[in-house]
Amino acid sequence: MNGVHFVLGSPNAYIHEPGILHQAGEWIGQYGRSVFIVTGSKSWDSCGNRLTDSLDKASILYEVHKFRGECSYEEVSRLKELVPTNMEMICGVGGGKVLDTAKALANSLNKPFVAIPTLAATCAAVANLSVMYTEDGVYIDFPVYVRGTLLCLVDTEIIASSPVRYLGAGIADTLAKWIEAPMAAKGKKQNLPTIGGLQAAKLCYDTLIEHSAQAMKDSYHSIPSEALQHVIDANLLFSGMVAGLGEDNCRSAGAHAIHNGLTVIPETHLILHGEKVAYGILVQLALEKRSQSYIDEIITFYQEVGLPYRLEQIGIHRELSNAEWNEVARISLLPASTMGNMSFAVTSEMVLDAFRQVEQWSSPIQS
Known about the structure:
globular; single chain; two-stranded antiparallel ribbon; Rossmann fold; Dehydroquinate synthase-like, alpha domain; six-stranded parallel beta sheet
């Protein structure tokens, strides 16, 4: 009999409603009286006053420190030197890289992590891992932690007012769960946590197919609608629960591996994580030799919500050299990447052929 090992598959508390940051102090105060906040400039501009007013009313001690732009081991070390010993909790306020940095900091100090996402672009608020990069933005690895998020506060009003592009990136990152998790689970023990992770991935996929187009329209007009709430919960909560339940049996696979490879091309550093994953989904589908009808369905969905399906849409407007393509493939296939979760062996030649196939699919399509 095989054992079942997994870290808590969801946050200890997930609170999602419009205006919840007005009550942030009450919620955070249930777990401690002091918090070290890591945030980005734009993120803090969107909600800082709302958050600090609430913390002040609840008499919560806090310090605010700005993130320097990359989720790197160097940045975590820098912030670690700034944390007073009396701080009880670490809080990330922002998008995925801010949250992953704060999460890495919390785990390095063995302190609870509080997530306040200002975007619904990744599952970083919930996932018990951080995606780490070099200071120049090239993927390194993803350490997995033995504790989950203590508290996640999701203010629909804040996310509804964020740039709609980030919501689209989150939709792609979450869509990938149903593309990747079944591939990672093939040949693995189908215990209940694995089955639960796969069901969470399917729920994400179905929710996005049904609600994404309306959610994108509502987000464009800053409307915290029911459709937007559904998509936010898929992007933030259930997306994180896929591997939170299934662990290594439901990890990322080809799509995220391709994302990792693309980070070696400087032009893609201005492209969001989920946008690169969107292209990676298509590369994985090419590797799997999925049916053309399914490919057409995915590309049609991409067009509806504004996701990239051509290299030029992820910043690559030139012919890459053979050396650059080989480096993309090499990084995609690193042991620290996730291509090893595919159910079959993948070679550099297969990766490059899959890129060519994706470009052939999109060549007759006008954006």
